[in-house]
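User: structure tokens for this one?
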Amino acid sequence: MISDLPGDAFQRLANADQYERFIARTLNDQAPAWDEHWDPEAFVSTCRVHGVSALIASAQEDATCIVPETVSGPLAELLASHKVFDVLHRERLGVLWRELNRQGVRAILLKGGALSLTIYSRPWLRSRGDTDLVIDERDRSKVDVTLRQLGYAPFFESQMQTASYQRAYTLTDDYGFEHTFDIHWRLSNRQIFAAALPWSDLVNNTTSTADGDLEILTLNQIYQMLHLCAHRTTHLTSPQFSRHLTPSGDRLLWLYDLYLVSRDFNEDQWNELADISQHKQISSIVHGAITTASEWFPINLPQTTAQRMQAAGRHELARHLLTRSRLRTLLVDILALQHWRTRLGMLFDAAFPPPDQMLSIYGKRHRAWLPLLYMHRLVGLRP
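Assistant:
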């Protein structure tokens, strides 16, 4: 796994707002000027927080971004690691994909893995910490057995039934790279998105893309946009992307993804996106993500379509997810469920994640910490 998030991702960096603007202008091919008073180490850390190290390093190689050697050197090292990891990881994806096909399991490649093969000129430019696949929930046991037979181990042996619809499997190769496959049986852990975008919809809105001799199934452009908007919203309450730590309050890579996917949209596609968003009652989510991305990148959302989305989203339950409030997010999750028994299960899962997951969240090793950690979580100090 090559993760762009540095160890200091939870520390606010001086001049981070200026670094973000420099990054956006570079990605927009505007050749911004470097300020000699900037801190090279802090700039590299900002690039990593936003997941754009490989993109900025590539721009530097192409001479569309001029930075001092104290910046270009570390970024070049990160880019080299991305290239090596990408080759090794795509080989492992190929092995898994062929085995799933042999088992009769239909999987859809999501997020960074899919985008790296479809909208980026070179796959290693799209950084990703893991590879996400969504499957039919009925195939969970087959996929679990397949991954274990291939040497992967679950990151958590989670028994949560309602708060989580995914399981990550990891393997460390002979070169020390960690390969993680995150298996989803619903598209999102946010209940409102899981209900709005069920497997039956996803599997009927796919397209194939070639990766060597493999035909990889990904979401089509419209559903890719819906998922990217939902994914961005899901992370609005993530600590590393709060406005206290990154001035934008977003991850620029995710906003850039939205720009690249929508770059060639015509009026009919924008209208289709608006129609589906309204039908699924997530217009506020799609409008919020696209308008935020358009503050950084030149997205050509027609004004009439934007107005229609905005009007449709005014009374949606989903709009509360844009407030960055953890309490409101939890309440939306609960209200999106149909039965009180399920709602109570959701509350229990949210309050009491598995012990191993709690230790990982808080960076602790010894179980003696668990009573204090659960108390800390219950008073709302940690997501």
